[in-house]
């Protein structure tokens, strides 16, 4: 059971953009890591874009399960995990991360934010803490 990606996005007009993300691509071949990470970023944005405000969903993409939660204020979280990772744990993690993110990062920064401008460093910690060995 593994978590591969944890992303926080903003679903604004007209499209979704990434605010912050953490990846664990250590199980992939060194030469595949950057393309796997790009795939996860793209998939996270696509799933958040296609999800309605205030909704939760789990979507199968290739050999991964992508869990998305889009809050009614437009803040969205996506976890990409393997098929065995418990769905309930993923949504608990998303709730916790989005709640903490919205307390630490001003809502005014969401529409224009990017991974380079948003200062929120807890994602890597959560990704490793919720890893099941």
TrEMBL record:
<keyword id="KW-0653">Protein transport</keyword>
<dbReference type="InterPro" id="IPR011012">
    <property type="entry name" value="Longin-like_dom_sf"/>
</dbReference>
<keyword id="KW-0813">Transport</keyword>
<dbReference type="InterPro" id="IPR010908">
    <property type="entry name" value="Longin_dom"/>
</dbReference>
<dbReference type="GO" id="GO:0005484">
    <property type="term" value="F:SNAP receptor activity"/>
</dbReference>
<keyword id="KW-0564">Palmitate</keyword>
<keyword id="KW-0472">Membrane</keyword>
<dbReference type="Pfam" id="PF13774">
    <property type="entry name" value="Longin"/>
</dbReference>
<dbReference type="GO" id="GO:0005794">
    <property type="term" value="C:Golgi apparatus"/>
</dbReference>
<dbReference type="GO" id="GO:0015031">
    <property type="term" value="P:protein transport"/>
</dbReference>
<keyword id="KW-0449">Lipoprotein</keyword>
<dbReference type="GO" id="GO:0006888">
    <property type="term" value="P:endoplasmic reticulum to Golgi vesicle-mediated transport"/>
</dbReference>
<keyword id="KW-0636">Prenylation</keyword>
<protein>
    <submittedName>
        <fullName>YKT6B protein</fullName>
    </submittedName>
</protein>
<feature type="domain" description="Longin">
    <location>
        <begin position="8"/>
        <end position="127"/>
    </location>
</feature>
<keyword id="KW-0488">Methylation</keyword>
<comment type="similarity">
    <text>Belongs to the synaptobrevin family.</text>
</comment>
